[in-house]
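Researcher: Quick test of sequence recovery. Tokens follow.
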């Protein structure tokens, strides 16, 4: 009875939150979004660069099937950034490389596969990545070029009314290293450098006039079907009560702790700027823990919807969209889309949690941004 009562209360809360979302008046204080990051936020830049490797099929079905067309998003549909834009009564944020797009509501510089660290540094450390990687520094250069083209004067005034999304980024720096069999202890050495790269971009956009910034943390990668398929060992004691890999989740938590500390330091010298930490880690675990109430199939929480079989429906040699892969009947019932990225429904649930359920701090800054 207690479990049923708890589920009923949570369901009522979600209904009320959705009502608030749907009834929001179009009077937000934000008039544009500028986004930097990787595949978690890319709305079509890599597609226009020419996707290769893991991402070679993002421009064709089944990618985009829920949205009814492939857009270059690494999902069956929309992403967290899309729900952020809708909650601000803004248009979806177009990719920078779509030169015919309307950028009046902001620009998305995020690129699937991007790293926080520059390609040269990673190659010097023997970390191989797909060709054409567009790191965070290159995305910042794109942003500056965009400003030069659109607001030679009064840029600071324009940026003061915008929301900056710096990340999620850094996940690929770690993914490429882990997928090449680097140890967790070895990859930990990159964390301070990754965090510094993120903070350098945050500092630079503040200098240019940004006053409202969201910096997301890393996901609990130990719950990703890709990590579970690649790093689960028979008889291992590394799995937690959810079935996730404790060691890799601890690594993600370590990154997030370092990132939050750096945000705290940033705020000490920029007290007039609103910097929000978006807890993607906590929001994702919250989703898993309340999956049934949210409409997800509890038997497939750690399985990809689109994949090629196995316990987690993930095979690095037969990725979603390729030969041998198939797609589940109802992506809305799945959390993971392709073993690395999430479904539209999962991103929607996370966006709601971040905006309305305390998975972004400080809460007063979140309320100030989404003051609709």
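Model:
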């Amino acid at each position: 009875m207690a479990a049923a009562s708890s589920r009923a209360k949570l369901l009522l809360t979600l209904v009320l939150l959705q009502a608030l979302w749907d009834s929001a008046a179009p009077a937000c204080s934000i008039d544009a979004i500028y986004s930097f990051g990787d595949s978690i936020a890319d709305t079509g830049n890599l597609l226009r660069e020419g996707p290769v490797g893991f991402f070679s099929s993002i421009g064709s079905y089944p990618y985009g099937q829920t949205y009814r067309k492939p857009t270059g998003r690494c999902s069956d549909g929309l992403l967290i950034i899309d729900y952020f834009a809708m909650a601000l009564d803004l248009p979806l944020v177009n990719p920078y490389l779509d030169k015919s797009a309307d950028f009046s509501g902001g620009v998305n510089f995020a690129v699937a596969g991007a790293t926080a660290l520059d390609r040269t540094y990673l190659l010097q450390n023997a970390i191989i990545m797909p060709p054409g990687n567009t790191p965070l520094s290159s995305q910042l250069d794109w942003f500056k070029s965009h400003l030069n083209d659109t607001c030679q004067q009064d840029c600071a005034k324009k940026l003061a009314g915008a929301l900056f999304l710096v990340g999620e980024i850094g996940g690929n720096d770690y993914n490429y290293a882990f997928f090449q069999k680097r140890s967790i202890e070895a990859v930990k050495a990159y964390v301070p450098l990754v965090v510094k790269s993120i903070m350098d971009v945050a500092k630079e956009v503040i200098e240019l006039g940004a006053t409202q910034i969201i910096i997301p943390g890393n996901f609990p990668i130990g719950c990703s079907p890709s990590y579970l398929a690649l790093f689960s060992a028979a008889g291992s004691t590394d799995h937690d009560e959810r079935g996730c890999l404790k060691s890799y989740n601890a690594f993600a938590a370590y990154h997030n702790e370092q990132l939050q500390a750096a945000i705290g330091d940033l705020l000490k010298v920029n007290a007039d700027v609103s910097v929000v930490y978006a807890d993607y880690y906590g929001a994702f675990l919250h989703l898993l823990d309340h999956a049934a109430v949210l409409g997800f199939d509890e038997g497939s929480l750690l399985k990809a919807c689109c994949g090629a079989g196995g316990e987690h429906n993930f095979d690095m040699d037969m990725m979603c969209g390729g030969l041998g892969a198939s797609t589940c009947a109802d992506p809305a019932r799945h959390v993971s889309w392709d073993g690395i990225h999430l479904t539209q429904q999962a991103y929607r649930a996370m966006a709601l949690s971040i905006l309305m359920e305390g998975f972004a701090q400080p809460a007063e800054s979140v309320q100030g941004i989404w003051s609709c």
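The two ends are 38 Å apart (CA to CA).
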